[in-house]
Amino acid sequence: MREIISGLWVKNTAVGLVVYLFCLSFFFYQNHFFRFPSHLHAWTQSDRYALAVGYAENSLNPFLPSTPNLYPKYPPEEGLTVYTGITSAALPLPEWLAGTAMRISGNLHPAWLRGIVLFSGLTGIFLLYRMSRELLTPFPLSFLLVTAAFSSPVFTYYLNGFIPGIPALALSIAGFYAYFSFLKSDRSVFFALSMALFLLAAMIRPPFLMPMLAVVLVQLLLGGWPAKQLRIWLLAMVNLLVFGIFMVYDNRLQNVYGSQFNNNLLAAGSMTDWVDLLSKSWNNWKMSYLTSGHIVLLLTAAGLFFVYRKALLSGIHKRLMLVALLTFGAALFYSFAMARQLPLHDYYFLDSFYLPLFWFILLVLSRVSVQHHFQLIPLWFGVLVFCGFMLHATAQEQQSRYTTHSWDRTETTRINYAGHAAWLDKLGISADARILVLDAYTSNVPLLLMNRKGFTVIETSAENLESALDLPFDFISIQNRSLPADILLNLPDLSGSLEPVANNGRTGLYRRTLPQKNADWINLLMAPEHETKRQITSESRCVQSNQAFVVLTDTLINSDTDHLQVVIFESRASETAKVKGGLSFVVDAKGPGGFYFYDSFPLEDFFLKAKDSINIRVFQNIPIEMPDSTRLKIYLWNKAGNEFCLRNTTVLFTKYSLNI
Predict the structure, then answer these.
(1) What is the pTM of this model?
(2) Taking the domain 531-657, which CATH number applies?
(3) Residue 109: CB partners within 8 Å, gap ≥ 6?
(4) 454-456 and 435-438 as β-strands: parallel, antiparallel, unpaired?
């Protein structure tokens, strides 16, 4: 009877934990699960989603990944003659599974890939729970471990994302679980399964070779009699050989087709440089890696390690703990090898330190025992309060990560190209048309949202723009916001080679024609259905260093759900202007019901890059959702105390129809 009750308890707690994880997922992801990649690191995430779309639209061969971008960010040394979009990308297994689902369903929705990443990550956390329970960890502490693993902010964010680090991490946890089963049962099949899972994780994300090497090394050092060691050696060598062959193939793929992804080490230059870069990474991401609650838990686990060190360094725990320490040491080496990436990318934490840290916490908590049932009440109370703090902290971090900022050009690009596939279809643009996107800022976002293949220019130097114009494209797409400041400022002669096809207020579609007399930039932005409602032209004015704000217009504006309203600003500055930075064009709107909108555009480049006269040109969108009687202020923010004079200043309020 006792065994039956015990079995029901174990089964019910496992089911309850699954329900708990899905409830957490619903709470955190209900507003974002079905969205296109956006906000923090949307560039990288959209590239992973692009791989899934590539599989769905091209070939389901898992070893020939591709994206809609036909020219890779890192082209092969010998250049490209055929534009296929094929790219090296390690083994994009999650993307291949998503692409297969897309092909079968006929739907390219990003939720397919989000769902695969979410399911794999939750499975990994559940396996952490299973290991902790099989190591006889008290259920409240297993619950604490699960909550801590889920609520690491970087894990919480990417669990609802697209990067392969989450599936690879989950496979590595499964590899540890299989190794743990091997240690318990002494059955070689579990060790073989462990190696296979580690191998698959490393093929998806190469840094996950580190835990496999740690397991192999520990087993070779502490594995016992020679006959068994021979099997271990053979299994390890076979897996390492397969990994090596695959990496040679992936490198060959990059040499032939190029890559959308960085495949090179970006190591620190010295130990001092490494420490400095780690310090910058911690300053940038510390509350993204771990909340204060996680840090307290980790410090507590470190203290308990010394309390239970004899138990933790004997039996099965000895090997498991040594694996954790070796994996942590390998993570330190990895952080040196990729040090220059760490301050920019928080997800490298998932590739390196996440696994050994939570593995260490799991092992330490497994040695804590509850002697009497009455101890469970205060233990549960403390665990629930602690879990509440961690979940609250990561919820705040997630809210911050999904906040849209005016400087976030990836998010601006996503907004500007949203709905473009239907717009191009309505214009009669063939689905096979190749489109060159100038100032795409990302490799694949505009192409994905247009549902077209083509090319993107990310850095809009004159050299890059001229090179892109030699590619085999059918149309050119330019964000209206980018046309004057990022395109024509760097390549003024392009205006004479652009023939407007259509403009929806956010982007313009153009054909390239034979060079003619340079067209007026405002005429390039005008669609036949546009409507100029208000024009303000000011006299010449000079701005002194003590003038922080220069108001151009202050007016009331009403909502118009049938049109997209924009502001176009043009002015000519004197050649003697002293502007080195800290000068912005600002659109500031406040309306009833607490409505607020703020957007700024830096103007320094117009002064620094001007060859002859200094022509300032800005295109800014106004939100559609604003209420009636919104007060709209347009001004120059002279933050750095610059001195300059303006003449022929023009402000246009223009509307683009949303019903075309």
Answers:
(1) 0.94
(2) 2.60.120.660
(3) 34, 102
(4) parallel
